[in-house]
Amino acid sequence: MTRTECYLALNSIRLIGPVRVRRLREALGSVEAIFHTDPARLARIDGVGEAAARAIAEWSRHWDLARELEEIARLGLRVADCEDPDYPAPLKEIYDPPLVLYIRGDLAAARRRGIAIVGSRHTTRYGEDCAKKIAYQIAYAGLCVLSGLARGIDTFAHQGALAARGRTAAVLGCSLDRVYPPENRALADKIAEEGGVLLSEFPLGTAPDRQTFPMRNRIVSGLSQGILVVEAGETSGSLITARMALDQGRSVFAIPGRIDSPQSRGCHRLLKEGAKLVESAEDILSEFDLLLPASPAEAKRPWPDDLSPEETTILESMEPDETQLDALIQKTGLPSGVVTSTLLRLEMRRLVRQLPGKFFVKTD
């Protein structure tokens, strides 16, 4: 077997992780030597044990390497093992770098300086706008935007980077032949087609589960120079990613939110613990002595010329983020019936949309 094939085989064994493989390689001199060593000797190596040694000896009974290689070729993927020159250098610095990376797209995107943007799957309009705006600015500055292709903040971070015609890298919590969530398949295709990259450490056919997502998160933070948490509840997995980033020596940033929003509590906790408060991309770039290039202001969507006076009044009274119905009634001074009927007309014209709790936002 080639070196990469050896790593693929070891990566398929549940009992064998990056730390055990490192010990085996250091004791035997190479990864190839692991497969030419008697199981009894493998078991005596510190931190290995009989069960792991037996699993290595019997790996081919439980996994088909030839079929894996055929599928990799059929899907147009490539694989970089942890000794490959193309393997991202920042990832080699972490305690447990993945043995292999399955790659779709241009790995160069993940090898450039990058900032991870993560957050809740359950977002507010404020969080969505922040994620897109800052991802746009970071990508425009020439950095890679890293995230996990999950619902919520991850999705908006990738979209913001693509809107800037920048590079973004998505690390999946499943194998590359099983994009999750399925509604992000088109986004995954766009990332790969527009100079970005999709990455996974999981053998083909691996479905997402509670174990794969934390494993994915260490790669997201490990590839980055810093991690920005946009919105996170008190039990959000993004807080785990932030802890991993700290353990890996990465900078941690957080965006403050409304004090009454459950989605802001995790960010506020990080800020209390010393994360750097972020109001714009400049707050992140300045940490790394980078400047945001001057860019023309993004053009706002013009309002139609045939708006009624009531429609104009309501649109001008709406906040940049969501606005509650009662606040609109009070701010406009219009009767409640006029406000609700006008909002309905604006919704039908796709100029506003309604959110839960009788909140309204202007559409982009």
End-to-end CA span: 54 Å
Number of alpha- plus pi-helical segments: 19
Overall SS class: alpha/beta
Low-confidence stretches: 295-299
Q: From the 3D coordinates, which CATH architecture of the largest domain would you assign?
A: 3-Layer(aba) Sandwich
Q: Report strand order across the widest sheet.
A: 1-2-6-5-4-3-7-8-9
The CATH class label of the largest domain is Alpha Beta
Percent of residues in β-strands: 5-15%
For the secondary structure, the number of strands is 12
Global outline: elongated
How would you summarize what this structure contains?
This protein has 364 residues and is of the alpha/beta class. The protein has helices spanning 3-11, 18-28, 31-34, 39-44, 49-57, 59-62, 65-74, 89-92, 108-111, 125-140, 153-163, 185-193, 212-223, 237-247, 265-272, 281-285, 309-317, 325-332, 336-348, and strands spanning 78-81, 100-105, 114-118, 144-147, 168-171, 197-200, 226-229, 251-254, 276-277, 323-324, 352-355, 359-362.
